[in-house]
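Retro notes, item 3 of 5
We never archived the inputs for the adenosine-5'-triphosphate complex last cycle. Fixing that now. Sequence and ligand:
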Amino acid sequence: KNLCADKCGHVRIEFPFYLRNKNLNHTTDYPPEFGLLCSQQNEPMLKLPAVPIPLFVRKIDYKSTLIEIYDPQNCLADLLLKLNNASISPFRFVKYFGRPPPVFDVSFFRCDSLSCPISLLESHNDVVDPRLVSCTKLKDVSVEWWWSWYFQQKLFMEWSKPDCGYCEAQGLKCKWKNGTNGATECYACRTKRIPTSTVVHIATGVVVGLILLLLLVKALFYAYEYYEKRGEDQTRIERFLEDYRAMKPTRFTYADIKRITNGFSEGLGEGSHGAVFKGMLSREILVAVKILKDTVGDGKDFINEVRAIGKIHHVNIVRLLGFCADEFHRALVYDFFPNGSLQRFLAPPDKKDVFLGWEKLQQISLGIGRGIEYLHLGCDHRILHFDINPHNVLLDDLFVPKITDFGLAKLCPKNQSTVSMTAARGTLGYIAPEVFSRNFGNVSYKSDIYSYGMLLLEMVGGRKNTNVSVQDSFQILYPEWIHNLVEGKDMEISVEDEGDAKIAKKLAIVGLWCIQWNPADRPSMKTVVQMLEGDGHELVAPPSPFHISGSSTAKTVVPTRRQNFELEVIHEIEENNVDHF
Ligand SMILES: Nc1ncnc2c1ncn2[C@@H]1O[C@H](COP(=O)(O)OP(=O)(O)OP(=O)(O)O)[C@@H](O)[C@H]1O
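Structure as it came back at the time:
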């Protein structure tokens, strides 16, 4: 803090000036005429004994010992009129080029029409200002300040005692010199200094305080992060548990099923086993609920389905999330698949809006193949599906296939490859001949291979084998044209891209092998998957769909194509069959 100067507004106030209203108890140190008042608007005012009004000070130049006076109403002439030759001692108007100012005769006018009603003019000025025509002359006076006023329109006053200009010129302050009467001396003003040790203490305190504050903020931040993360973890765990609960097949009451399907409000379709509805299990799990017809299957469908897929998890097999067996109500709850069944997408390549593209078809066939391979070999029991067809392959949002509808499935120990069958099961057009035959005997997992083969050929041909009668089923389903395609003869489908043509041919060859009349000639699903995974170069088409492997020991009757035939018993042979691929 500068103890040697004060301030009022922008004006620095120091010796010989001082502020009267600061209650200084050492006013005797200052000449009384230099006392200034600081107005409420922070304007310094000089109150001289002989002048009836306060003089507003705009500037004090300590070096030149000058003060500039102004009128707050912007009417300096009025101020001069009021001064009216009064003594402004100890000040005087500034000298005229180093000499005492000359005296001028001037006249004051009152002009009520002007914003500053008092005007001033040198008396012997011949040229009358036209603005003063309607003014009344107030008085003529002789003044010393006229020249400064005239040239600068400002009023300067100077003082000579006490003489401090020389101190200011040296950058020093000024004060009375002790023991003299009116002499001054210069001194260096010392601002009140805080001892260095205190400064060091304060600085250390501030730094330590800041560090502590920083550490505290950091600790609070970590604590906040920690608790927020724990909260998130907890939410994650809760959500997982909620979903996990939903992952294990849950037994639902019929009321649950109604709630899940929102009162069976959104139907997805109807199959031979019952209607399917869309539902919601948890906030994130959409489901499809199949309500089984109570008349169908003596509850066997239900048992089959729950037993077959209740515990298995595979990316290509639909997940059973729950079931309902409440009195006579039976329902099965699955994951919901927005793209519906593969049946929707069976179309020739020229049907651009439905056709999925050969790459995708290849992925889908591979996915279905892997799903069936898992059913045949990957579970505790061998699961024979017996109803592989495009209705029973659902597609998720990324077109990953999911095998569904295990109502006709059969379970058998892994070391047993055939099951006895007392009734034909499956969907017309996809049923293997040995299953279709009237003389039902033992059938094996190879019947799934047959259905899968038909599905593959259907995918290649983009045809739908539905709604065929028993009568003409084989005529329609015998894929002569596929065979021609493979042989390079009659191309009923056009595949432009070479890579696509390769895929189409590969799928067709694999399909043809799968629908071999003799189950022993059909590849296992493991081989099918390998064939599909390869680039298809080495694949050779079977001579005809009814080709019989030389290695087969089965006595097989080969029916003539297009013949309305009755199938004879086909005895399943064991696994020592040779893969031809
Ligand atoms: N999980 C699911 N997600 C989405 N849609 C489904 C689901 N399950 C079935 N659907 C749809 O519901 C309809 C009926 O399915 P369902 O499996 O009962 O009959 P289907 O397979 O068409 O015939 P069938 O039962 O006679 O073989 C089908 O159109 C199918 O697309």
